[in-house]
Amino acid sequence: MTPSTKEIDFQTLSRSLLDIAWSFGPKGLDSACCKDLGIAEFLALDDISRTIDYPVHQVGSTLGFTKSGATRIVNRLVTKGYVSKRTSGHDGRVCCLDVTDRGREILSEAYANYETILRRIFAGLDSTKRDALRESLIQFSTLLMQEGSQEGNR
Question: In angstroms, rounded to a whole number, what is the distance separating the alpha carbons of residues 123 and 140?
Answer without folding.
Answer: 21
